[in-house]
Amino acid sequence: MSLKSVGTALTRTLWSRGNRTPPLSRNPKVNRLSTTCGVLGGTNHGDKSTHQSCRSDLDRPSGEAASPGEHPHKCASGDAKRPKDSIRGPGVTGVRRRSFTSNAAPMDQRSYLWTRYNDLKRLVYDLIPPGACKSLNSSVIYANNEVDLAEVDIYGFDYDYTLAQYSNALNTLIYNTARDFLVEHFKYPEEIKTYDYLPNFAVRGLHYDIQKGLLMKIDAFHYIQPGTVYRGLTPLPDEEVLDLYGGTFHVPLQQDSGFYGKGPKVKQFMDIFSIPEMTLMAVANDFFITNDIEYDPVHLFKDVSEAIGMVHIKGYMYKWIMQDLDKFILRGDETDAVLHKLASHGKKLFLITNSPFSFVDKGMRHMVGENWRDFFDVVIVQADKPHFFTDCIKPFRRLDGNGDLRWEKITSLEKGQIYKQGNLFDFLRLTGWRGSKVLYFGDHLYSDLADLMLRHGWRTAAIVPELEHETKVVSAHRYAVNLTWLQALTGLMERLQIHRDAESRDVFVEWQKEREELRVMTKNLFNPQFGSIFRTLHNPTYFSRRLNRFSDIYMASLSCLLNYDLSYTFYPRRTPLQHEAPLWMDQLCTGCMKTPHLEDMANIR
Predict the structure, then answer these.
(1) For the residues of 478-537, what is the DSSP string, one character each?
(2) Where is the signal peptide (predicted)?
């Protein structure tokens, strides 16, 4: 059973059970979510009908009397009378409609609110069966935009973390080597070597304030998520964060970070290789703070970045992987199956990677075989993305069979040849591969996908390995119960906030505290420090916003493509906008409207 089905069941149960504040019986001609009800005058033979505002007693405590002369369902016009309701419910035969009069003793405000709370909580826990979210599957391809694979003739790929998936053991080696570089080349204190790699500390998509030395998680609206700001390995209190940022959690990323998230003041860590870099950044800060050593966070940031860069520039990472392909490369047989499937259907394939040919060649031979180049119509190495997609300066150079550069001018891109550098503008001119008939796969939202979608109209597919972990969490019964109750409690608070007396305010303080605890519990199921890479509390993360903007489809690994035929159409779910949503989860759980009655809103004053 899906969460939507659970919510619908909750709503029906709330309407059918004897809730102390049930919704009004509705005339068949009244919209179920409207805050007004139409009172019809005349007959059904074309007479004009009048439309008059009505108020509900939904939020009056049980037993509380109406004002003298006030009807429980009060119409704005005193002259027009509501027609008598049928004894049968709309569309229901043989069932007498419920009566909502009560002879119960008046209830104090606190007891009334807690009764609503307990009734709702009991329903949530009773009606969510185990396995409510089991339909989630990490092998699914998710769509941000409609994509018809029948229209795609050309498939392009990045190499690292796209064609080749790497094990987590690689992150440990990157961290340890860069940490040692800090000591040996940048003369950092030897004691930093006592800090081991923390594999579950950081998540992809975090931002780093270079001048303040803070690692943080930011949402799609450029607001810091409270409780996710770390100086070193220690979280900062929210009060200190507000003080550092001038009394707000907002960070002006457009001026501090730039389009590609590279600074000058704030950097976003977007690729999977950046996880050990974030950990080393936090460890180095922690060492200086713990030992009360004065330092400049800007210098530390540059030193750590250079140390991580040396791991790649000096070829350490390539050397480790080539020495033990079985240890570091995952799912090679699945990559082989994807390439065979595409080639057998007559699709054209190309590869554009920043990695050197010798490294790519050895990895592809391991995964696909000696003749791996036969699958690809064009192979480009050391492309220098993202500049490959934006600059038109560097020409293509051909490599010979030994990987050495040739000197002739490139006038065509030929199958079976290896090319270095170049630029997309020459690539488009020489191949003619343009527009939505091209689908390119990559793991880096900026370097691989952004320019292709925004400037050139290619279809794009993001590889997001974290989906495997995240879908497991979301599929757990504990997560389903916590999230549904969190949404239900939020809806209850939204509906009943019109009660502003002292007793009600005390109850709301307790509810708000529980709501914050539920949020923290839900976050910790993904990662204790930073939570999900896709959500900051109820909002999408900045990473998630970029994922939706720069990728038509996204998936955990390239092997997900094996689950679909090549004429399949991916349709994005229509997620309702706030103003058009007929029912959200909080309404389904509470059986109440999203927006309070206008008359109730007026009482808030």
Answers:
(1) HHHHHHHHHHHHHHHHHHHTT--SHHHHHHHHHHHHHHHHHHHHHHHTT-TTT--SSEET
(2) none
Q: Using CA atoms of 513, 516, 518, 520 in order, give the dihedral in degrees to the nearest 10.
A: -140
Q: Reduced to 3 states, what is the DSSP secondary structure of residue 462?
A: strand
Kindly report the backbone phi and psi dihedral angles of residue 389, in degrees, each rounded to the nearest multiple of 5, phi listed first.
Answer: -85, -15
pLDDT digits (tens, 9 = 90+) for 237-253: 999 999 999 999 999 98
Q: What is the mean pLDDT of residues 251-269?
A: 82
- For 540-567, how does the pLDDT look when each residue is reduced to its tens digit (9 = 90+)? 999 999 999 999 999 999 999 999 999 9
State both tokens at 539: 């909002």
128 CB contacts (<8 Å, ≥6 apart)? 6, 477, 480, 481, 484
Whole-number Å distance between alpha carbons of 588 and 569:
31
Q: Which residues contact 93 (CB under 8 A, 6 or more apart)?
A: none
pLDDT tens per residue across span 64-118: 444 444 444 444 444 444 444 443 333 334 433 333 344 444 578 899 999 999 9
- Catalytic: 501? no
Phi, psi (rounded to 5 degrees) for 434: -130, 160
The amino acid present at 221, given as its one-letter code, is F
pTM of the prediction?
0.78
Q: Does residue 158 have an active-site annotation?
A: yes
Exposure of 391 in the CB half-sphere (CA atoms within 13 A) = 13
Give the residues across from 440 on adjacent strands. 156, 460
Query: Is the separation of the CB atoms in 419 and 379 below 8 Å?
Result: yes
Residues whose CB falls within 8 Å of the CB of residue 477, separated by 6 or more in sequence, listed in order: 128, 130, 131, 132, 133
Q: Tokens 């009943």 map to which residue?
A: 496
SS3 content of the chain, % helix, strand, coil (to 5): 40, 15, 45
Residue 240's H or E segment, with its range, is helix 238-244
- Site of tokens 């229509």: 574
Write down the catalytic residue from 57, 59, 119, 160.
Answer: 160
Which residues, in sequence order, are CB contacts of 56 under 8 Å at separation 6+?
23, 24, 73, 597
d(CA 58, CA 521): 32
229 three-state secondary structure: coil
Residue 289 has pLDDT above 90, yes or no: yes
> Among the options 119, 158, 448, 600, which is catalytic?
158
Q: How confident is the model at residue 127 (pLDDT cuts 50, 70, 90)?
A: confident
CA neighbours within 13 Å on the CB side: how many for 224? 28
Q: Contact at 8 Å (CB) between 526 and 472?
A: no
* Helix count and strand count (H, E) for the chain: 20, 23
The 10s digit of each residue's pLDDT in 328-374 is: 999 999 999 999 999 999 999 999 999 999 999 999 999 999 999 99
